[in-house]
């Protein structure tokens, strides 16, 4: 069952006198109890797509068209107050830097208890019991005593676990995890990904993961959407993507994974375009080894190449 559907989302930035489009017809869907990973280099629009769902976009950004359907209701038609409620209780954000979500002046336990009070209506011992359960669910050891700690007494990985516990305590149906492991070392990254996987399976929580790291998602994600320069260029199931990648950009990303290294690590030549740069046709053409004349003139549409696999490349014509 689809819980979230983004349809033909277009967004741009007002840069002084000029309006610069940044997202072009973004469409994807997230199923209940599944993980969708949006992957791409920095600046490709993946975070902006996710923040559009929560309507946490910068003041200079404007969504010009599209729909964001959460359980069938268009979030773009909700009032700021309704969105505040949805952000607090239905769709939760796990940010890259957990310190942006934790208040350093209050204990982690106080912050969690406040959420339990608001969302579950529990007080006193009952609320503490729930808080301990939430900490145990995210595998924070000595859960009861850790409730008394301030954020600075938690390691980076523990802070991220506490944020996830808060999202679970408000019974969020969707977790939007924006590069949730970037600030953590490799061992802790794997632990947090494993935790997200457990939450997905055990709680039937849907997870939208934003990342630049394909290696991180390969074991856990159900579906993948690859973004480049504000467009989705490939979508596929995990199995299909890793066994049969189609788009030259996806293939280049996969070749640059350390696990695929043969003699030397391959890198993608050039840089992704900035918002101010004009590239006619396929935006990947200056970096693509397979670029043809048509690629410099027309934008390739995202089209089915098999069931549950789409790609935007003229090589498929
Ligand atoms: Fe490369 Fe052309 Fe395909 Fe773009 S459309 S990825 S330039 S082959």
Task: Describe the structure in your own words.
- The protein has ten helices and twelve strands.
- By secondary structure, it is of the alpha/beta class.
- Strands 6-7-8-3-9-10-12-11 form an eight-stranded mixed beta sheet, sandwiched between helices. It has a four-stranded antiparallel beta sheet with strand order 2-1-4-5, covered by helices on one side.
- The two termini are about 30 Å apart.
- Iron/sulfur cluster (SF4) binds next to loops.
Write the layout of secondary structure elements.
Blueprint (H helix, E strand, L loop, with lengths): L1 E14 L2 E14 L3 E5 L6 H9 L6 E10 L2 E2 L5 H10 L1 E4 L13 H13 L3 H14 L5 H4 L9 H14 L4 E5 L7 H18 L2 E6 L2 H4 L5 E6 L2 E7 H6 L4 H8 L47 E4 L2 E3 L6
Parallel strand pairs: 3-8, 3-9, 6-7, 7-8
Antiparallel strand pairs: 1-2, 1-4, 4-5, 9-10, 10-12, 11-12
Helix pairs in contact: 3-4, 3-6, 4-6
Short overview:
32% of the residues lie in helices and 25% in strands.
The DSSP helix count reads 10
By DSSP, the count of extended strands is 12
Query: Strand order, biggest sheet?
Result: 6-7-8-3-9-10-12-11
Strand content: 25-35%
Helix content: 25-40%
Mean pLDDT: 92
Regions with pLDDT < 50 over 5+ consecutive residues? none
Biggest sheet, open or closed, and with what strands and sense?
8 strands, mixed
Order of SSEs = EEEHEEHEHHHHEHEHEEHHEE
Which geometry do the CA atoms define? Answer: globular
Ligands bound to this protein structure = iron/sulfur cluster
Give the termini distance in whole angstroms: 32 Å
Helix-strand category: alpha/beta
Radius of gyration: 21 Å
């Amino acid at each position: 069952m689809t819980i979230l559907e983004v349809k033909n989302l277009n967004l741009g930035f007002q840069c002084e006198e000029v309006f610069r489009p940044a997202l072009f017809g973004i469409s994807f869907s997230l199923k209940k109890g599944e993980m969708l990973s949006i992957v791409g280099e920095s600046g490709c629009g993946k975070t902006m797509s996710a923040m559009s769902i929560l309507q946490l976009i910068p003041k200079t950004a404007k969504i010009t068209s599209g729909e964001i359907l959460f359980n069938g209701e268009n979030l773009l038609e909700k009032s700021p107050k309704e969105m505040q409620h949805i952000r607090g209780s239905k769709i939760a954000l796990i940010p890259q830097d957990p310190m942006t979500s934790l208040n350093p002046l209050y204990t982690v336990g106080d912050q969690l208890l406040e959420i339990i009070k608001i969302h579950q209506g529990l007080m006193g011992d009952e609320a503490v019991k729930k808080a301990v359960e939430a900490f145990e669910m995210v595998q924070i050891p000595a859960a009861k005593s850790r409730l008394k700690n301030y954020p600075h007494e938690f390691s980076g990985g523990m802070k991220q676990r506490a944020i996830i516990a808060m999202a679970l305590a408000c019974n969020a149906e969707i977790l939007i995890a924006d590069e949730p492991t970037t600030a953590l070392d490799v061992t802790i990254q794997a632990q947090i990904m494993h935790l997200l996987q457990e939450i997905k399976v055990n709680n039937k929580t849907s997870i939208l993961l934003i990342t630049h790291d394909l290696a991180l998602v390969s074991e856990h994600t159900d579906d993948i959407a690859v973004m480049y320069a504000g467009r989705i260029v490939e979508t596929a199931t995990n199995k299909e993507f890793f066994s049969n990648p189609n788009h030259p950009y996806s293939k280049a990303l996969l070749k640059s994974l350390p696990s695929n290294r043969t003699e030397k690590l391959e890198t993608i030549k050039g840089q992704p375009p900035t918002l101010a740069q004009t590239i006619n046709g396929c935006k990947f053409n200056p970096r693509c080894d397979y670029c043809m004349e048509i690629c410099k003139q027309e934008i390739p549409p995202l089209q089915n190449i098999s069931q549950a696999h789409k790609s935007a490349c003229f090589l498929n014509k």
